[in-house]
Specification:
The structure holds 2 protein chains of 2 kinds.
Chain A: H1 18-33, H2 37-45, H3 50-72, E1 86-87, H4 93-125, H5 135-158, H6 169-188, H7 197-211, H8 217-225, H9 247-272, H10 281-301, E2 307-308, H11 310-319, H12 324-337, H13 341-347, H14 352-376, H15 381-399, H16 418-433
Antiparallel strand pairs in A: 1-2
Chain B: H1 2-14, H2 16-29, H3 35-41, H4 47-66, H5 70-75, E1 89-92, E2 97-99, H6 122-130, E3 138-147, E4 150-165, E5 171-179, H7 185-202, H8 204-212, E6 226-229, E7 234-236, H9 260-267, E8 273-281, E9 288-300, E10 303-311
Helix pairs in contact in B: 7-8
The chains are: A mainly alpha, B alpha+beta.
Amino acid sequence: MAKKPANLIYGLDDQPPFLTLLLLGIQHIFLMSSTLVLPVVLVSEIGGTFTQISSVVALTMIACGLGTIVQAMRWGIIGSGYVCPNLCGPNFFLASMDAAWIGGLPLMRGMTIVAGIVEALFSRFVHKIKFLFPPEITGLVVLMVAMGLIPLGVSKFVGINYPGEPIQALNVLVALLTLLVMIGVNVWGRGKIKLYSVLFGMVAGYLLSYFTGLISPEQFQQVIKSPYLANPFLVSAFAVTFNWALLPVFLIVSITGALKSFGNLIMCEKVNDDEWKEPDMKRISNGLTADSICVTVSGLLGGVASDTSASNVALSSASGATSRVIGYMAGLLFIVLAFSPKVSGLLSVMPMPVMGAILIFVTSFMIVSGIQIMIGAGMNIRKTFVLGISVIFALSLDMIPIIYASVPYYLQPLFSSSLTLCTVLAVILNQLLRIGEKFS
Amino acid sequence: MIAAASWFVYNVSQMKNQLTFGLIIFLLFSTTVRADVREKLSQYVYEDTKELVVFVEDAAALIERDGIKAFTEYDQPSSRWHSDLYYLFVYDLDGNCVYHPIEKELVGMNLLNFKDIDGRPVIRLITDIGKNPLPDASGWAFYKWEVPWLASFPQWKSSYVRKAIAPDGKIYLIGSGLYNMKIEKSFVEQQVNKAAEMLLAEGKYKAFSSLKDPFLNYDILDSYITVINSQGEIEISANFPSIKLHHNIFNLVDKAGRNVGQEAARNLQDKDRLWTSYLWPKDSPAHLSRKLAYIRKVQIEHETFYILMDFFPALPIWMK
């Protein structure tokens, strides 16, 4: 039986008052919207019309909303019962872009469905490999998921989008003030005020960005021009195609996404249980099934594939509100707002410093959680090598990727992300170094 | 919510001094960009490009106000005109160097016929921008130049050049550049349009000869001009500049299976320019990336030619 941590204002089974619930839901959907620019970029890149862009954004929102609700449920083998929302993160972006390039939206849809099915299969077997994931390795996965947010968070914080660009002082200042508001509310705020640390920060960040011109008038014009209500389902947009050549890429991103969700769900368990010792693999398995449903539905509807959001999980931890009804509310709001291009447009123009500040704020929680899980497992010389060596090689992939440029083709999937490399290395080393363990 | 708002207001009032300090810092960081400059900036994607344009535009405004007295201002050691990354240079319309803080020996020299390592007439590219009748004409010059902190060999430099008319009526061309910049779409448009105008003005034979001539190169940062005829045959190519091979671009398909050449020709039936994009190998055959191409259709002496230039746009820094 899980023990509710003292710092949680609303635990998993608590029912916040309606207004609180609404505000917490809004806080989550702002974060879920922070990457909605990715489907906009994707459809624009393949020459999509404004209607197609709006449609794909809305359908992605519907799938993410649905995924968030299903994740918060515990229905048979589906759903972990945690607030672990879905968002259209960078994980699937390049693969989806390749598919959209090669075969347009129908192929992207087909490959997304395949990725969902692969994750569904993986989710059904994950409990059988529990022995591969002792707490120190699950902590490492959580830590590496958090590390994966660093490039996006820091580049947005300093206002840099492309290599060679100068640091934008104004951007940094607005990001810093936004971050300070969030930290201030979280550290010195009393009682339930902590629930809204990100919301306070976002309001301050949006206002500062508006008055300093960091939100461009063109962005506002686009939002103003958008209709209040629209049907996102395009009649001609239900074609589905498949390409064998893209299968390896989608297999990799599907498994990477599943590993990331694995880390996120462990973080959810840890946040909700003061006496957490090891992952509940059945629950995680059900959570991954929910995630796979979200990905599959995204493909079926015609949205861009999503995965679970590390930043939203960390937000729950930061705000001290993990009640699963918040997941229902956030999911429902996301679905409803998908039918309003004006509102979804407003959500997708999140200024860079606001996005950067939020990501840094929530990533801090996740990094510490990962470290706590690892340290909590107790250290010995075997674990030191398992964790140390895995981290060294994983970080080397991010720090000096050029040294892996000539990796043989068949090994490239392993080097597709530092999360994958770190997890695989840790699992192998852990099994290897356990040889003779009971005799030592 | 009311409690939250009261808490926030209370804490804010307690932090009056800190907020005042913050506001001062905030105002110091805030920079205002003139409306006319803001309009010019809207065509660029990258912040380093925009920052360079603002730098030159502001320096030009100083010449327009103070004439050559502005040079004294540029020389102030602690002023904003001293940057680690770029410096200002000024020429007159005849190609005389009137200000150069790095190579001071150049000041007073006529460099109109100076050419870079590949034979590009660097200063002529700069003074050509001044021939535009607009009083605030501007443009980009691409050439190879020494890097101040690297004495060994010249590198690609992209310079933004702005015409500035001093109070005494003298015309100056003020510019500044960055080394190995990311290619902006407007750079490509400028080069292709320049080549198209030359083809229209000088006719096929003279223009083709000029386009192949390294003294008048139109290439920028390893992107090149290609000319194709109405049958899709390549007339001018950077791969084989001095011979014509029977390569037909209408037979080429990109890695997504699209025949981009034929598609572009169809789309150009009722217009004379367009941007298109396609999937192409980048660093290795397996590493596919998006490539953008700008195409101009030129009709001359009953013949149709397509002038194009393509490049790989930069990927966001956070995307692996």
